[in-house]
Queue: 4 jobs
Job 1
Amino acid sequence: MTNPVLAETTRGNFVENCHRGAVAISDSGGVLRTEIGDIDRPVFPRSTIKAMQALPLIESGAADALALEDKHLALACASHSGEKAHVSAALEMLQRAGLDEAALDCGGHWPLAWPAVIELAATGGSPGPRHNNCSGKHAGFLCTCCHLGIRHLGYVNPEHEFQQTMREVLENLTGSPHAIDQCGRDGCSIPTYAIPLRSLARGFARMTDGQGISARRQKASARLLSACMAEPFFVAGTDRACSNLMRAAPGRIFVKIGADGVYCGAIPELGLGIALKIDDGTERAAIAVMAAVLARFFAEEAPLYSALKAFAQTGIKNRNGIVTGEVRPVGPLAV
């Protein structure tokens, strides 16, 4: 199946790029509210499932034992910008578990936020694992291992006890097998498993209403989604799409982007999960499509609909601040 064009970018009066993709919107029982394109082709969810991966942090009792706050829980679900508050919160999590930055196996890179890069470089600093956008997730993994008395060395390897637990969590939520032949390595070195968008959407719906999962997992899911919606800055950062979209509807929208054009989310009050993939991996197209998808569910609320529509159709500026074109959803998702 050839996926339809869901977004396009323009330059001047011409369409310069077309972005094909697929979208699944499901309830927790697997009943589809929306199906666009090939939602059964396995895709790597990448960072979209960090909230699912943070569930053992709650379920194990580690979060309570270490007195983790909403900001820490949100950071455990984050692809953060490496701003000061993000780095400090990640280090706090490690310190409460009796560890330091050296325990992180995510690798280091410069912060995603340009002002944070400038500040770090100006002070003669160099990037480390604490600046990695996944350091909060990894800190959560390490907190869980330490609380359970699991040897944390090698925690990123597929055969590690923690990763085996993680695989079981993901299978339970999505209803999709996470077999070794579906496994790859993510950018931060942990295993990532290719599954259909249909399954991803259902997994996020299950996090909203608990159908098909235990009462303990439902409670942990609600706590994590609530923490992310309460502290959207810690899920992404200054002027980042995930933070901005969740701020547009406080407590009503959860979203999490992943690399290579994958974007997932949930609308808790409707019990719906959302999963989409832009075939060519373009992030700005994925953001436009997610905003357009969300806008459809709030069409009767004019201020919110207008805010989401503004995220869906945005101008593209060059380095002199001149608008050169726009990115916009098209076809079945045009707003």
Job 2
Amino acid sequence: MYTLSQCRAQVAASGIYKFMNLHPSARIASLGGINVSIIDKDLNLSLQNPALINTEMRRQVAFNTVNFVSDINLGYAAYAFGYGPGTCTVGLQYINYGKFQGASATGVPTGTFTAGEYNLHISYGRQFKRFSYGSSLKLIYSNMNVAKSTGIATDLGTAYRSKDSLFTAGLVVKNLGYQLTTYTAGNREKLPFEIQAGFSKKLKHMPLRLSVTAHNLQKFDLTYNNPNKPGQQTDLATGEPVVEKITFADKAMRHLIIGSELLLSKNFHFRFGYNHMRRKEMTIEGKRGMVGFAWGFGIRLNRFLISYGSSSFYIGQNTNHFSFAANLNDFRRKIKVQPNPGSGK
């Protein structure tokens, strides 16, 4: 006699090219990992929601680097330029998984190799009154030594800004696409499709901006029951693990990321974020620490904007994000026109 049982896996375990969900930006990391609603001149926001692209980003360059876990490194570089009434951004997002020792099926060493994945995107954003819209085209390449894959995807986003610019909101559909070439013949896999929405509110009489972002809206239940976790109880009648009861509120909270920015001056911002799903999935039973929390700051030095972000993914391990940005227009020399002595002027 056979019985059917329901199995649920973590969302992070499904799909390919998951590195695209790890944003290297120090600001995004310190706000909890995702933000699709802040509208300002931060070029890194174009990778979160193409509708956030605006004319203030033109001629801006940005570089981001992260020492993620062990010798795994993330990075992102981008440039923005005007295109008609809108603005285009071109960027390269990558992850380097480090160096590995190869071996044959019999265990004979075959030398070392590296693995990495890359996302080259071009994005376009345009404003229409208090609304904006944008889209991104992504070309994806994944190299896992002998296993290689390519893919194509698009992001579609929209955003809204209130008349006083104190309230902004955004919605984005991410990673609509197709795996062009597969890692193994006949095994085509899905891309990490996701719907995200959020809003940001700057307080009128305080230098504080609050953001709430909802992710994975295409699926409500993001919970995962681990049958092997310490202290797992077993049903004496069936011999099966007792399924943990998870409340509706907990399921809803796993979709939310809360971030805040203390805008102390035009040249210094302090940031804080909380990711509930990360805290629930990455903590060790009885040892939660600061997992799920993040913080960081941004400081302007002369013509450069430098940001730092720290995120806690598990006990005793924080990721360090560094971002550098500048607008090339700030480096233009002002040339004074000398009057012509013979002109009488």
Job 3
Amino acid sequence: MYKNKIIKMSLAIVTGLTLTPNAFADDASEIAALKKEVAELRKMTQALLKHTQITNKKSEEKIAVLEETQQTLIDETSNIQTGFTSVSDGHSHSGMGTAASKVYYSKSPLSIGGYGEMMYSSQTGDSTNEDKIDFYRFVPYIGYKFSDNIILNTEIEFEHGGVTDDGIAQGGAVVLEFFYLDFLFNDNFNLRAGNFLVPMGLINEKHEPTLFNTVQRPDTERFIVPSTWGEAGIMAYGDITEGVSYNFAAISALKTATNGSKWIRNGRTGTERQTDPGFAMVGRLDYTGVNGLLLGTSTYLDTDMRISDIHLDYKVGGARAYGIYTDVSRSNAQNIAPDAVDSASGGYLNLSYDVLSLTNSTHSLPVFIQYEAYNPEDSRADGTSGDATKITTLGINYFPHEQVVLKLDYAMKEKANIKDDIASVSMGFIF
């Protein structure tokens, strides 16, 4: 319709233009009519152009939507075929690390993830002079969704290169760290059954190498809150209200009829077969109502022992502060040995700043300082005590990718009059 009118009006204009100047002069009304028709022609031409542009734009949008839908279908089909889902930053389920949480956010029933770390350290000082390379950990996570509400999650850990030489352990180990089923009901109440990480401290549930700054995990969370610490049992967890979460579990108890500086760590039962297991309870509360803040407390209780902690992790801009304080008491120490430990305590604080946050870089470069003081033998049944250990660590991390970290730190360690310096470098990753 537009095109026919344009042709007719164009012919009228051409016809008008072929008139003699005298004709134009003689008929002013005809000139006015011609101008009107030219204006109408211009208006119609603009409308036609606009209509064409809108039509083209809608076509382009439809093509873009179709291409995006096609790519989504390809990605989802690939996920279903391979069981692979990428680690999504910030996705943590019930306080666990991002890689350990993959199965909960996977579009595929099968999820495969994990983490690894290797390191080199050089220790000099009063106790020893030693250089060491350690293929410390390679840890696959394997998860499976039976349905959206029933989920299996497992962690298998190969430590120090695993088991070698015809099955004879050479300082390594293969351990099933956790193995549980989750029954998801709603945001406020869910159940977990099996062998799972005990919800205490900061590192025990979030022990992937990209989540803490030092090369080694803090000693407080190795010897007092003895990560990685898993027990068999059943746990309820969820949100009390927005920003406040809870965990409450009935679990197998630590085997604490041991002594010395590793008395708590050596009490972990893990997934090994147990006879006459003890009984314990664990409770945890966390507040995350402020953006970037985790503030909480947790307590473990069995018939003879209590472990309590308060923990903090706060990120704002490029700055981060995290740490815990924990103390332990044991009521039956005198029944174990005259010098059995009956209390322990410790804590650390790590302060860091990502200097690349001041630039447009997509990488991260946190520089940190950590101070730690702990004593796994604060007091003994006979009234004596062990020596406290103090460690100041300076270091730097480089993240060329959010799932890959290179670490360098220098730890100055002091226990009684024994001083050691430890320089360490490591690489770690999650997937």
Job 4
Amino acid sequence: MTEAIDSPATSIPNYAFSTAAVEAEHQFEAWLSIMRPLVAMEPRSPRDKGFPAQSLAWDLGALALTHTVMPALDFRRDTPRLRADSVDHWLLVAPKRGVMSSEAGNKAGAGLCYVRSMHRVSAGWTTDFDAVALVVPRDFCPAGARGLDVLHERHVASQLGGLLADYLHSLARQLPQLGPEHLPAVVAATRAMLVACTAPGRDTLAEAMPALQATQMERAKLFIRQNLLSPRLGVRDICRQLGMSRTALYRLFEQLGGVMHYIRVARLQDAHRALSSGTDMRPIYEIAAERGFLEPSEFSRAFKRHFGYSPSEARHETHLPAPRRPSLKNLTAPSLGEFVGSLR
């Protein structure tokens, strides 16, 4: 069943599909129905064992972005399909989990960006897969055409390739909070990133710099969140993870008061969540020490300075129930295959 997320009227159009409501023996046929007629697929496990898969696609006008989770399968885009649909797009796949491989043996996993030219014959397989993919019509990015064609069934090399994958993941996280008025900026930034990462040069890098910096910032913030309780978290570890110099990191966080200030505030906010959760009843000094505040008086002063009240007052706040997640509703919509094929 193809569905649309029940979201405000000002949200970016998006279509969700899941095989969860289909009987196990018919799940793969349901999955094929939304991919028609672009590609032939065959699961790597018996069809009657089920095919639990889901996909969410955003219509960006000139582009499409998808987030897909599916079991392992083989895929093939052959000559009859090329002649039948004349789709002349690139597919840039950034796995979060799993591996995509071509028949030639080229592979891409997490942290890489795999390129397929849909106007050329291609075949390969995936393991159990969780990936974000960008569908790019040829006319959208003429400056990057040569570089993307060369990368057919390969991954984008170099650190810029990793940044491009991170950019696509970041875009998928942010699109639910954006509206149609943001699409021109999103499309322009995406075009600049594509050209900079596939045909790098001084001019293309300069044009993509805002998007590159935003992606680096997202990567840095994610690393900080994931390591917030680590006593080793600091400038050296962040620089090593991002592959950047101290000077570049300091410049990146300059408008946020510096990287160490950002970490300190993030730890205060995390302490506030723990204190006000109603479930973590450890002494306040233990919660503070876990987040690098070894002196209780220092923690209390910093906490009150930031929030305007003390840690003990935060612990006794009224706890509100968590908001409900958006529900799904039925919507008559084209299959994902037809949607992708309609991009020009």
